[in-house]
Amino acid sequence: MKILLNKIDLNEALFGVSNLGFVPTMGSLHEGHISLIKYSKKICKKTIVSIFVNPTQFNNKTDYKKYPRNKEKDLSILKKLKVDFVFLPNKNDIYNFKQKIKIAKKDQILCAKYRKGHFEGVIDIMSRFTKMINPKMIFMGEKDFQQLYLVRNYLKKKFSSKIISCKTIRDNHNLALSSRNSLLKDNELKTARLISKNLNNFRKILNKKKNIEKLIHLKKKEIDSFKNVKVEYLEIRNKYNLKKSTNIKNSKIFIAYYIRNIRLIDNF
Ligand code: AMP
Q1: What pLDDT is attached to residue 178?
Q2: Of 166, 198, 221, which residue constitutes the final position of a domain?
Q3: Are residues 58 and 161 in the same domain?
Q4: Do residues 62 and 13 share a domain?
Q5: If you count Cβ atoms within 10 Å of the first and of the last residue's Cβ in the chain, which end, N or C, has fewer?
Q6: Residue 131 belongs to what H/E stretch?
Q7: Does 52 score more than 90 pLDDT?
Q8: C-alpha 166 – ligand 1 centre gap (Å)
């Protein structure tokens, strides 16, 4: 496993490499990330994983500071997985030219509405990485569904790299794995698991119901009443265009909520 610390290392290591799979991450690796890496290793000849906590996608400085970081543990996981390259760039290597990203008004929904500047930061970094690395495929998780949607739509206009979407990996209690879960105390973790189970069941009953808008409104209220929980949004949207939907078919339930000051997102 080659560790690449800057653009020079990167160019040297990737010279002549084709059929490259790229897995971008912010580290604190868990089984969700690992599933992306395994998929890349399966269908690409070489795999590169980046670990970079991208400052420009945090709309809140404390959130950026307290984001979990576990470099040594991450590197040992990647070594065991026999990843070919790990890219650990620093800010100056990445942000060495100006680029303005704008999110269309129709896309300023869900997290784009509540985390101002977040997806501009995500798209910015993803387009810089894609330009530098030029992978054949980029592996991204459905856990961050809106991110996958926006990044795919942006990159396909500029690059030939193909985005491969990967299923959300959950724990035994149906909670989507997330680096942020490590910030939860035991009772908060229980609450997060309860919310996941609740919404998973909710999705099943919606198949047979008609007045979905009313039910969503009530479900939002119910989850909001859990201890220490504040729901930011709970919405049903079409999974192909993210337009509001009143029908569960071809749609997903999207949620963002806080437990104490920890923000979690998921989709069902
Ligand atoms: P992050 O390190 O949180 O920026 O995530 C890096 C990549 O891993 C993104 O494409 C995420 O969507 C993906 N990912 C995060 N959690 C999961 C999960 N539980 N299952 C599948 N993919 C995930």
Answers
A1: 97
A2: 166
A3: yes
A4: yes
A5: N
A6: helix 118-133
A7: yes
A8: 9
Q: Which long-range contacts does 186-191 make (Cβ < 8 Å, 24+ apart)? A: 188/228, 188/259, 188/260, 188/262, 191/226, 191/227, 191/228, 191/229, 191/259
> What pLDDT does 210 receive?
82
User: Which domain, by its residues, includes 245?
Assistant: 184-261
Active site residues: 33
Domain-embedded: residue 267: no
Pocket residues: Cβ below 6 A from ligand 1: 25-26, 32-33, 35-36, 140-141, 143-144, 166, 168-169, 176-179
Minimum-distance ligand 1 atom for the alpha carbon of 36: 22
In this structure, the answer to whether residues 155 and 192 fall within a common structural domain is no
The stretch 156-167 carries a mean pLDDT of 98
Q: Are 228 and 188 in contact (CB under 8 A)?
A: yes
Question: What is the per-residue pLDDT for 114?
Answer: 97
The atom number, within ligand 1, closest to the CA of 168 reads 20
Give the C-alpha separation, 193 to 173, whole Å.
6
